[in-house]
Amino acid sequence: MANRVPLIAGNWKMNLDHQQGIALVQKLSWTLKDAGHDYKTAEVVVFPPFTDLRSVQTLIDADKLEIGLGAQDLSKFDSGAYTGEVSGVFLSKLDVKYVLIGHSERRQYHAEDDAVVQAKTAAAFRHNLVPVICVGETLEELEAEGQAAVPVRQTLAALAGHDKLGEFVIAYEPVWAIGTGKVATPEEAASVCGKIREALAAEFGEELAQATRILYGGSVKAANVAGFLRSTEVDGVLVGGASLDAEEFSGIARFQKHIAL
User: Fold this and answer.
1) For a disulfide at 171, which of 43, 108, 238, 248, Cβ 3.0-4.6 Å?
2) Catalytic annotation, pick one of 105, 137, 141, 173
3) Does the pLDDT value for residue 261 go beyond 60?
4) Is 173 one of the annotated active-site residues of the chain?
5) Phi, psi (rounded to 5 degrees) for 168
6) Which residues pair with residue 135 across a beta bridge?
7) Pick the catalytic residue: 103, 137, 141, 233?
8) Predicted local confidence at residue 143, as pLDDT
9) Closest CA relative to residue 177, chosen from 104, 247, 249
10) Taking the mean position of all CA atoms in its chain, how far away is CA 253?
């Protein structure tokens, strides 16, 4: 079994201006420091809106914070006449390490299909960004195909056709659980993450499968995170609304104190 460091990722979505973002990261850092958080045992990354990235990056750099930085999306293009798009070139210049790709809200509101997700994954690899590839099923897909079929299919589609795979993360977010208050059971989350890992092993080999971190997302809170992360198949969480509260998000990051070893 590979030694996969848990990843606690906070997707701010379209919330917080750059001043509010600075304040949140400062408070998050202080809260984790006061609690004696060891980032080597649980990596913590925030995904602010594009307009916040430079301010948050400057804070992280100036104060030498251990919190990681991610972006919420990137263009499949590197440059050109693509108004409103953001290039991976720009993100890498800001020391962004991670980028969300294929979030359900991008798939739903911007009609991003598997081909677009694959092209954006390629762009992330080109610029040494780590794509956090979001996969998950709607309630209709769940009822028609079962719980793992769509996430596995979306995972393999995103990773197909690349000359070489860089580091990547898979985030399983059942669409029916995002922002609804409904949550997959820990057993359901572990089962789907396990099936994604099995598919990775079959397609790319056991070594890559065991090295890949697979996250769960969907109404994650400090009160329920430990249940998901007790499973060796679940390597972290992608958090939405709860990541906007420094105390709550730090509680999620310190999930290990709730797990009896």
Assistant:
1) 238
2) 173
3) no
4) yes
5) -150, 160
6) 172
7) 103
8) 86
9) 104
10) 14
The conformation of residue 118, written as its DSSP 8-state character, comes to: H
What pLDDT was estimated at residue 2? 62
Spatial distance between the Cα atoms of 206 and 59, rounded to a whole number of angstroms: 39
What's the pTM? 0.96
The rounded Cα 210 to chain-centroid distance in angstroms is 18
Dihedral of CA atoms 114, 202, 227, 219 in degrees, nearest 10, equals: 0
Given a contact cutoff of 8 angstroms between Cβ atoms, the answer to whether 15 and 72 are in contact is no
Angle, to 10 degrees, between the axis of helix 53-62 and the axis of helix 18-34?
40
Supply the pLDDT for residue 179: 65
Report pLDDT digits (tens) over 10-35: 999 999 999 999 999 999 999 999 99
Place of tokens 């971190």: 213
Record the tokens describing residue 60, joined without a space: 């992280």
Separation CA 214–CA 196 (nearest Å)? 8
Mean pLDDT on 36-42: 96
Tell me which of 2 and 164 has the higher pLDDT. Answer: 164
Tokens encoding 200: 């990775």
103 catalytic? Reply is yes
Tokens matching residue 8? 């606690």
CA distance 225 to 252: 6
- Cα torsion angle, 96, 15, 216, 4, sign: positive
Q: What CA–CA distance (Å, rounded) separates 151 from 216?
A: 12
* Gap between the Cα atoms of 22 and 58, Å rounded: 9
Q: For residues 206 and 98, give the distance between their C-alpha atoms in angstroms, rounded to a whole number.
A: 24
For residue 180, the model assigns a pLDDT of 66
CB 244 within 8 A of CB 16: yes
Alpha-carbon span 261 to 210, nearest angstrom: 22
